[in-house]
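Quick log. Single chain, no ligands specified.
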Amino acid sequence: MQRTFFSTASILAAIAVILGAFGAHILKEKLSPELLSTFETGVRYQFYHALGLFIVGILIKDSQNKFFQWAGICFTIGVVFFSGSLYLISTHEITGLVNYKWAGPITPIGGLCFIAGWIFLFFGSRKK
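-> predicted structure:
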């Protein structure tokens, strides 16, 4: 599981950097300031939780603690739901995505996954 979390964290962090650069150099001219801010929020939270996933990978090395495993799973799902939905919502005008309203309710589910991941990390750190 450690390798999976490190691999996933590496990919998520690389994608966050790529999307951040894409937003700063290309989307800056194509999106309204509000939509660009939404896109940047997705990138920021993706990167934070990629780092969180690295932490989980380090912690899980010495302990096959189920709380740490659940933290990593929640962080990964959270990135897909939270950041992914923000990317869809913010770029809907330039991608031509007409039916994007369904993505709005997905965002808080991703946020709940992030919160759950940090709570699992807390409980994992308390377990002997």
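The two ends are 20 Å apart (CA to CA).
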